[in-house]
Model the fold of this input.
Amino acid sequence: MLMPEPDAAVIARRSAIATDLRRLCAAPDAVIESESERRPYESDGLTAYHALPLLVVLPSTTDEVSRVLAYCHDNALKVVPRGAGTSLSGGALPLEDGIIVGLSKFNRVLEIDFDNRCAVVQPGVTNLGITNAVQHAGFYYAPDPSSQIACSIGGNVAENSGGVHCLKYGLTTNNVLGIEMVLMDGTVLRLGGKHLDRSGYDLLGVMVGSEGLLGVVTEVTVRLLRKPTTARAMLVGFPSNESAGACVAAIIGAGIIPGGMEMMDKPAIRAVEDFVHAGYPLDVEALLIVELDGPPAEVDHLIGRVEQIARQCSAVSVRVSNSEEERLVFWAGRKAAFPAVGRISPDYYCVDPTIPRAKLPDVLKHMAELSKKYGLRVANVFHAGDGNLHPLILYDANKPGELERTEQFGADILKYCVEVGGCLSGEHGIGVEKRDLMGTTFNETDLEQQQRVKCAFDPDGLLNPGKMFPQLHRCAELSRLHVHHGQVRFPDLPRF
Amino acid sequence: MSRFRPTDEKQLVDIVAAAVAGEQPLEVVAGGSKRGLGRPLQLPHTLDVTGFSGIRQYEPEELVLTAGAATPLTEIERALTARRQMLAFEPGDWRAPLGSSATDQTLGGVIACNLAGPRRIRQGAARDHFLGVAAVSGRGEAFKAGGRVVKNVTGYDLCKLLAGSYGTLAVMTEVTVKVLPAPEATRSVVFVGLDDARAVAAMIHGLNSSHELSGAAHLPKVDGRARTALRVEGPAPSVEARSAALCGELKQFGAADILGDADSVKLWTAVRNVDPLAAGGRAIWRVSLAPTGAPAFLAAVRGALDIDYILDWGGGLVWLAVQGAQDGGAGPIRAALGGRGNATLVRAPLALRAAVPIFEPLPPAVAALTARVKDSFDPKRILNRGRLYPDM
Done:
């Protein structure tokens, strides 16, 4: 992966820069300079890539973030923002001549406002931490990425994180009401608040999912939802991926939006069952977990209807949870899918496309062919409700060339998914990982328009460079208008 | 003064490119139903985009629909209804309050103004359902963003910027939206005679219950009496159980009536179309604020102005009709709001619309960023110049 060439002159100034930064932050331990203490920051959840940052700064207040960014801006220093460092796409991968601005000290829940159904939190609060702070009153924060114990809400905003309940409850972007943020030049902005509609351009909307390239989030106002009174899950086994896929389409076609709908293919079922012993059937080709949540009258009614649909779609086994304990056992396997796969292989690599649901059997078939071609096993877990597919490619990083082959396999999967109408990333982000595949989805004009928006926020390109865009362009070059001088008159078109 | 009516993307690109080269601003119009919304425009040329119309792809099982941006909303809704689906953000039709004679509104217009009806509290606004777009920027370049799947984080979410941009960033040609199943049944639990504070309290009580409300509105004057309505939607057994339970849990607010499907549809259509305030020539404001702030806000405004009003979104949306104030009420309304939300002037006589900031004025740093974002799409400020803010 080609990253921007580190500037040796900047690296040579490391300790002078550290001295300057210490003056900007009150806490004595706010600036991390020693190599051993910088080491933990060298990569994020995408561990295949690492780089030692120039320095790490851990500010404690918005004012400190503003001063640090303004200093970096004035001294043309690159900045990589970092939340909990759980990104699976390398969004927080450091630069050797760049400063990590870590938000881990922003770890307080500032306000809980049940009457307005929102909470104001600092960006370092974990996703699950929000729910933990409000669940005593029967509320929760809806988006629930698998890493929710560790990942921070600031990181969720940067990546527009999803989870298993997205189809019904939305992604981060649908559940954030407001932010306070700092631009690269140190300007502090507040966008939105406790009200639902904002005025003017939806700058908050473009900040969510901007992968730390537009600004640093220092406060987040999130929507809270009342926890559904009842949730019941069903385990449905199918003789083929096709019949499982058809069942998903039939459920949605019948007007039912389950709280969660997850699918696993045979390799995933086997890995999980060997690990968790959740009682998953081993004689099926595909397994669906369908969870209905909401008022009891509704859940009971819909469970009956889904069961009927499943039978019509040639399900070979249907089990319905009859207690909360049993529901959790049904989920235990799915939630342990990644570690279960980790148990049967030294390493695994997770891919993240979203595909039109109808294309699932086709994509799985193609993947099986690729698996043969590359000589690498693959297990699939699938957010079937929203079409977000997670193929897990099993490999051994210690075998020379196997990581490269795995990445090639992953890239081939993504290209195929884009070909059938899907996208490169459903919830993990582009980062460095999928950066060079952006051309499969967007042409040069599309990417230039995105980068012009980047220029509006960060004209010098100092925030998180090397992520998301395959090619870096200067803002001056991007803003140039290509006016064809022979063509200044309106074309000869029908006028009315 | 010319009116251009391109029928394909190539023609549109040529027109915008020529407008850029000649620095000739264009007013972008499709159905024209919202021409009365936003700052009044007097631009030399009109860009009529009605040529970009028609449903291109609709896959009910995938919950996505792609259509030309100028596709009439009734055409979209007809197709969705046939498959028992809907645009869940429930856009209002403001032709009556705006005094528009347009035959219909378009999907692109609804997105460009980021409309949302009573279901906003549960399902979000147009922005939350806007998945992908093909457009021509104010640079005269065709580009696309987003995609045709419901979960997508590939690149910046430019759809969010276009939603609510009032056509000032790019001319949308094709849009993809998320659609959802229409509810099988609807019930509305209606309380009578509550004052503002009690009404907001009742709505909060309902919204914080486990009954998944999809609407919470307060109409202070229906046949001389206040009505506070809570809506539940879903399968028939579910709405029966939930509406009955709501009556019980909120009995401190008095005995409630339960409206069936037809009466519910009538009630919530009136709310989203602002019917109760449409009559007369009064200035109409749309104010978004934290729901608990609504009673104090109304009290402050009532002290200074002669108003009628309705509340939607559990109190988080206040519609005001203002009688006789010089500035249409802008001063007292924005003072009462104190920056904790925003007030938009939806209807007013032309002179007033030109004189008063239609949209909530932005803090300087946000205004500066807004201008840079505008310039990143439309550096010569060709598209709908002045629709949102002067000179922009």
